[in-house]
């Protein structure tokens, strides 16, 4: 699992940051776990945040763009894409990743990337921060978004 080499991190002070969690609606148990992890990190950091839902991962980028236009300092993008028997998986995964990257760079603001690209549902359950999960990718994405938003703020003076 990728979480094995994760760095130990100190507490974050996210006061004054406005963060939007944007999550797809597919695979509800997994996406709800990702949201819970992200909210926990943002609450602990005392960052202002809200959750919005989009139909699927493909729609995350346009919603992130709207969140930045509305004044968000950071976005936490959460989605679940599970491989099937057609090339659909590759197209949606690539478009979602490329779209979120573009939105982040165009806005000059961070997108915490919590989009799970999976071979099967069990891999998502193992990463969703649920009881028995090995990882908490929602929490990791929120942590990355907060830390990067603070760094960008510092670098820009």
Automatic annotation (TrEMBL):
Under Enzyme Commission nomenclature, its number is: 2.5.1.78
**Family assignment from sequence similarity:** Belongs to the DMRL synthase family.
- Origin: domain of life: Bacteria
Q: In which pathway does it act?
A: Cofactor biosynthesis; riboflavin biosynthesis; riboflavin from 2-hydroxy-3-oxobutyl phosphate and 5-amino-6-(D-ribitylamino)uracil: step 1/2
What Pfam families does this protein map onto? DMRL_synthase
Q: What is this protein called?
A: 6,7-dimethyl-8-ribityllumazine synthase
Q: What is the active site of this protein?
A: 88 (proton donor)
Q: Name one GO molecular function term.
A: 6,7-dimethyl-8-ribityllumazine synthase activity
Name the UniProt key words of this record, in alphabetical order.
Riboflavin biosynthesis, Transferase
Which function does this protein serve?
A: Catalyzes the formation of 6,7-dimethyl-8-ribityllumazine by condensation of 5-amino-6-(D-ribitylamino)uracil with 3,4-dihydroxy-2-butanone 4-phosphate. This is the penultimate step in the biosynthesis of riboflavin.
């Amino acid at each position: 699992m990728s979480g094995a080499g994760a760095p130990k991190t100190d507490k974050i002070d996210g006061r004054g940051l406005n963060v939007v969690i944007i999550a797809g609606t597919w695979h509800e148990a997994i996406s709800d776990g990702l949201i819970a992890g992200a909210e926990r990190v943002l609450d602990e950091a005392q960052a202002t945040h809200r959750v919005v839902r989009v139909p699927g991962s493909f729609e995350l980028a346009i919603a992130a763009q709207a969140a930045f236009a509305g004044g968000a300092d950071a976005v936490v993008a959460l989605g679940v894409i599970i491989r099937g028997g057609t090339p659909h998986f590759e197209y949606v995964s690539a478009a979602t990743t490329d779209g979120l990257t573009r939105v982040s760079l165009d806005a000059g603001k961070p997108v915490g990337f919590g989009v799970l690209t999976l071979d099967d549902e069990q891999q998502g359950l193992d990463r969703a921060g649920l009881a028995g999960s090995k990882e908490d990718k929602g929490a990791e994405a929120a942590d990355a978004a907060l830390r990067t938003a603070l760094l960008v703020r510092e670098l820009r003076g």
